[in-house]
């Protein structure tokens, strides 16, 4: 089984990182790597900034993945997601960057990141990215 760095945030009172670049995603070993299973994570309070207006954007983020050797540690994930609050980016870019960075941290077999963004100008935007691209079996049931 792949070695992972020690878990340092869980059980500590570390301050929230100020940006995703400053944040650290931590993982722990998957104890049942021979059995594929989905992990569903729901973060209803995600916020970032519009890169054009500087106005806050909010969304419900849902992350589903089938772990291989490593699982994401949820406190570090919470800190990482909270670190986006002062980051200016388009919604579509956020979802794709989250997929890239989360999958780089834990190397899952499959992963889907979905952002249901609050309406702007009467239009609700949902962006979803998957690894491998084009997963047909959607664990969100949508």
Question: Briefly, what is this?
Answer:
By secondary structure, this protein is of the alpha+beta class.
Strand content: 25-35%
| Sheet with the most strands: spatial strand order | 2-3-5-6
Q: What is the level-2 CATH architecture name of the domain at 39-131?
A: 2-Layer Sandwich
> What fraction, in percent, of the residue positions are helical?
10-25%
Q: Topology as H/E string?
A: EEEEHHEE
Q: How much is the radius of gyration in Å?
A: 15 Å
End-to-end gap: 34 Å
The stretches of 5 or more residues where confidence is low (pLDDT under 50) are none
What would CATH call the homologous superfamily of the domain at 39-131?
GTP cyclohydrolase I, C-terminal domain/NADPH-dependent 7-cyano-7-deazaguanine reductase, N-terminal domain
Number of E-state strands: 6
Name the features.
single chain, 142 residues, alpha+beta, two-stranded antiparallel sheet
SSE topology:
Elements: E1 27-29, E2 39-49, E3 56-66, E4 70-72, H1 74-82, H2 91-106, E5 110-120, E6 123-131
Description:
By secondary structure, this protein is an alpha+beta fold. The chain has a domain at 39-131: GTP cyclohydrolase I, C-terminal domain/NADPH-dependent 7-cyano-7-deazaguanine reductase, N-terminal domain (GTP Cyclohydrolase I, domain 2, 2-Layer Sandwich). It contains 2 helices and 6 strands, in the order E-E-E-E-H-H-E-E.
């Amino acid at each position: 089984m792949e070695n992972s760095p020690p878990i340092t945030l869980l059980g500590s009172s570390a301050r929230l990182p100020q940006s995703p670049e400053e944040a650290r995603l931590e993982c722990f070993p998957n104890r049942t790597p021979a059995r594929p299973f989905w992990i569903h994570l729901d973060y209803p309070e995600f916020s970032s900034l519009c890169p054009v207006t500087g106005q806050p954007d909010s969304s419900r983020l849902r992350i589903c993945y089938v772990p291989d050797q490593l699982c994401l540690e949820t406190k570090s994930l919470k800190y990482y997601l909270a670190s986006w609050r002062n980051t200016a980016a388009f919604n579509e870019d956020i979802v794709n960057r989250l997929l890239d960075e989360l999958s780089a941290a834990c190397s899952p077999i499959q992963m889907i990141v979905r952002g249901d963004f609050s309406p702007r100008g009467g239009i609700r935007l949902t962006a979803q990215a998957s690894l491998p691209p084009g997963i047909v079996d959607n664990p969100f049931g949508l």
